[in-house]
Amino acid sequence: MAPITDHPLRYALTGELHARPFPNIKAPQIVAFLAIKQAGDAAARDRDRGADMEHLVALLNHYGAPLPDKDATHYYGAMGKYHIKWEQHTEFVTFTAFGDELSNRPFDPAEFDVFPSHWLDEAPGLRLTSSLLRLMPMPKRTDAIVENLREWFVPESLACAHVLDGAAVVASDFRIDPAGHTRFAAFVPASTGSRRVGRIIQRLVEIETYKTMSMLGFALTREIGGQVGKMDHQVSDLMAKMSAQEMKPEETLNALLDVSVELENVVAQTSFRFAGTAAYQAIVRERIEALREARFEGRQGFGEFMARRYEPAMRTVVSMERRLERMSARALRASDLLRTRVDVERSAQNQSILESMDKRADLQLRLQRTVEGLSVVAISYYAVSLAGYALYPLAGYLGLSKGLLMAVVTLPVVLLVWGAVRKLRQHIE
Length: 429
Hints:
The chain is of the alpha+beta class. The chain is built from nine helices and nine strands.
């Protein structure tokens, strides 16, 4: 085969598809999960990726575990008596610790001590979510599962289902317990393979993580609700005043532009979070569908729980996003209408000014012609006087009196002056 040059990203992109394998675990097992998010959105988050790596290295050094590559975005390996799975995402990082020593006390807060308290205090961000997952062998009697669920979870919020065609029974109430963690339980038959168990655990923690991330959009919706309502009222009020002509169009336009600027600023500040919420919501749905749920003892599954509690919050986010879009479009249309009205009024004003200028020009023309007539008289007077002085010697020779001479000269001189002035005016015009 003839040699061919590979694209520089070929191997990196292919490796990315296989970079995050599911862990191989068997029951019994305790899983401690932690997600940390730095303040701000991804734009600011990207500048601090090195801090995430330093935080991981500090944890591995605490246990004397091997260190990852400097530019790694994921890591899996032994860490003392645990195994640790670390993933770096766009907005957050996740730590998943696996241990095979179950506490006699279900969901004992001490099980989370795999993450040292001093290490948690040095986290380069805030806890987005944390979970304890108790993985146990499937009991012979269903009643034993029911009894455990009644003891471990809040019944009114409990979601429980068979998953992956009976590969496990999983449950959670998605509440935060007194220790600050979300609880998950999984009961696995001995016939379920370790890779399948790993996929189940991975999907459960992903559901919790992406659910929490998407709920940030809902929190933002609540935060800006009052501001958006105020701007909506302002736009409606300005449009009403525009219709009633209570304000000058220029004043209304300026006020509307101020509201539009504030509105566009809100849209710019929320667009990233709302887009992220839609993406995270889609992941939550995909992960729940991938579980292939079946009812357990007539209880609601994860999908039903999300449909009742989670989906309404997501619809609220979508509603707010569309509301902002509609408000922005309405403000834009109102601005266009106001600009049109202002342009029409200015055109009318310009037309009035032009008419006034035409009248002034006409008056000036008339005045000019009057002045020209007077100037003909004045010039003729002086011209006749000059002509008289020049022709006085001829008066005696011709036997004419000075008065008669002046009378004879006046008419030709006036005609000559008038003709000269008219010719000059025609030449100028």
